[in-house]
Amino acid sequence: MTKKVIFPMTRVHEPLRVDVDIQNGKxxxxxxxxxxxxxxxxxxxxRDPRDAALLTQRICGICSSAHAVAAxxxxxxxxxxxxxxNGQHIINLIFAADIIQNQIRHFYVxxxxxxxxxxxxxxxxxRLEGDYRLPQKLTDELMAHTKEGMLKAMRAHEMxxxxxxxxxxxxxxxxxxxxxxxxxxxxxAYLGILQxxxxxxxxxxxxxxxxxxxxxxxYYTIGSTKGNMISYGMFPQPITGxxxxxxxxxxxxxxxxxxxxxxxxxxxxxxxxQDDQETRNPIEGTTVPDRNxxxxxxxxxxxxxxxxxxxxxxxARAWISGEYQRGTGVMDRIITRAQExxxxxxxxxxxxxxxVPGGPTLSKYAxxxxxxxxxxTDAMRGPLGHWxxxxxxxxxxxxxxxxxxxxxxxxxxxxxxxxxEESLLDTxxxxxxxxxxxxxxxxxxxxxxxxxxxxxDAPEHKPPMTL
Amino acid sequence: MLSRREFIHLCMSTAVGMxxxxxxxxxxxxxxAQSKTNKAPVIWLELGSCTGNSVSLExxxxxxxxxxxxEILDVRYHWLLNVANGEDATKALEETLEKEAGKFWLxxxxxxxxxxxxxxxxxxxxxGNMVTGLDAIMDIAAKAKYVISVGDCAAFGGPSAAHPNPAxxxxxxxxxxxxxxxxxxxxxxxxxxxxxxSHLLFYxxxxxxxxxxxxxxxxxxxxxxxxxxxxxxxxxxADFPGGEGCLFRVGCKGPVTHADCPLRQWNxxxxxPVKAGAPCIGCASPNFPDGMMPFYNHLPDIQTPFTALNxxxxxxxxxxxxxxxxxxxxxxxxxxxxIHKHYVDGTKPLEVSEPETLEQAxxxxxxxxxxxxxxxxxxxxxxxxxxxxxxxxxxxxLAEIFQxxxxxxx
Lengths: 467, 410
Ligand code: SF4
Ligand code: SF4
Known about the structure:
The structure holds two protein chains of two kinds. By secondary structure, chain A is an alpha+beta fold. Chain A contains twelve helices and 18 strands. Chain A has a three-stranded antiparallel beta sheet. Chain A has a three-stranded antiparallel beta sheet with strand order 6-9-10, covered by helices on one side. Chain B is an alpha/beta fold. In chain B, the strands form three sheets. Chain B has a five-stranded parallel beta sheet, with helices on both faces. In chain B, strands 4-8 form a two-stranded antiparallel sheet. In chain B, strand 5 (122-126) and strand 6 (129-132) form a beta hairpin. In chain B, helix 2 (20-33) packs parallel to helix 9 (190-203) and helix 3 packs across helix 9 (190-203). The structure holds iron/sulfur cluster (2 copies). One iron/sulfur cluster (SF4) binds at residues 49-50, 52-53, 109-110, 151-153, 158-160, 186-187 of chain B. One iron/sulfur cluster is lined by residues 222-223, 226, 228-229, 232, 246-248, 252, 254-255, 274, 280 of chain B.
């Protein structure tokens, strides 16, 4: 029996500690814990609701626009407003650009060095020893693509800034739309970059993913979960509000069921928080940090749906939309992320053609005295919810439940593991010094803890589900 | 090789379509090829952060991040980029600490979490024990050649330290006892980072202001450089974000924020907030976010800022008055009580605490006094100058009538 600790787990966003127990070349137990706490929900109290989209973006510099979108959806409910036609399309376009950027960077900056040897200089050295399987020629080709990939991710951010002003932390999304104009030059600039990215994703990104999947076939089964999938859906259409990506849940690879948010609960047995009751419906959750709690090993709480752990993200969305139901392993995650990127590129082309040049992107509004709302959307990594309550035109309650909390949750009081902990079980390990396989599994989830560790104060009300 | 003057000129000029990094890379490349300089060994430490500055830096480079890594910085430790895991990555850090002591640069992203002795943020293992960000920074900063804070969190506490600051977040300079070069912004613009890094490499520490920000990027206010400045002068104000005219009334913090966004713009010269109709929220300011909120309300009125010798307080007062080559016009506004108090509960109240460094406090006070006097003089002059004022007033009124605006004097 060998117990190993990996801390920090690198090439993931923010500090993550992974403890594994290895027997006979296989992982038999694992815990994953996040080690940073900032507490944004507490900071939101007493502020002007209009500031929510801007301040909550600061939770995460990688997926900032996802928080802007969730906060904006929450305010739309609370203010009883809906965005203009152009406005909704442009919000979708901004969000789409950020997702495209994210997926490309995840693959080419974070994940790819698990499978091929990078340049011989720091930070690419020292590298992990392990089964690098690609022949030299393909390695060179993929390395060249890696450089292009960085450039394309940057282009995706340029595309975002056309309507979002700047990124990370875009600045134009408001409750009823965006402040930037839908002028002809902006539209054509966006379209130009989008076309370039669509071609590249189709011809290069997907190709590279196919190459990896071909050489690492065993990773279709390594890193598997039981197949509990959840999605809030994303990209509402203007007026109808129907989402381009549907919401839903799947139990153990079964049929898609409608999502019912009242079935969500959070547990804190193994998280550094105190409460006299361990499991609460998010409706009545509390949070008091306690770093000394004996059994705890993470700042992340354990969100559960009907008491079970669920995975979110591109793989879950692909299962729920019925477009990909092959498996739940490492390669399945990598493949669906790439496929989804192409799908989003195509969708964005559609939305941009529906923009009315020069039409209003925004309508004026004032902050109501009272209101409450739930902003639910999928972010790059899975379901993201912002809950807001307003009194006397100020925020009195704010709650965020993040994708990474779902995926990277620690054990709950039933001892049930979170999806990532579960996926690590049975992972074969060739060499207990390098543990390259563990990194492959973990990174396939595209972990990002900057946001996960803010899950502190739970929503007080059940959000009406209007997906 | 460029002279220092030429270099600064290059940093401050902004040619459309090129990022500063694109200019700098070939220069760096030559210098290194002719072994005029060496790449700097860098430890990049992430504390209470959102990784936004690393992502911003990734946007810098055209064509690739790799160029920056191979031409300017020798990044030994950066957990977003390290290929090695856990112990092996930390080994690279420890080796750099030992072998390059006094030579390596420490770049910090995110603020130092001080609550519960720093245990709200643990960053790596040393001899099997969890090391907090607080301990790590104390140890590493003491051995570094330069300590550079990137982003508002590392520089001044930033969003991580927003009221009520549950994790006790602080800016790096508040914790370590040495000079820290601050590159603020949420996130920092990639050019600000690469420009400062290059200056450090070639010529040493650049000229800094009293907040230790490089003057070549933070010497002027957004307001001084803004494309909507003429509308401000003419009294044409937008009454909602996204509208035509100066965005002052809908919350623009440009008059009190030092940075060159209007010239440099973001993401490869594509856009910047005010151009896109979004008020500047002052994310490069030492008072971000609390001193800048509510983001969509205009700046608060502060009457007598000169009560105590206190850096924080003075900083807040400077927000109210504006600094640098500021906005006498804006001061006129304050003087005439057009601008009202808009602080809300939830934003950080002005703290009265001991000055962190007496020198800095004195310098601030001097600057502030000078500015106050200048503003007052100018204000009196303008007050005496009735025709000018009337013309402006009429122009504004006319504009309001033509644009059908209601009286948005609140
Ligand atoms: S200053 Fe802004 S970008 Fe930087 S770490 Fe803080 S929140 Fe993130
Ligand atoms: S107040 Fe803002 S929008 Fe107006 S001129 Fe100054 S910086 Fe520009």
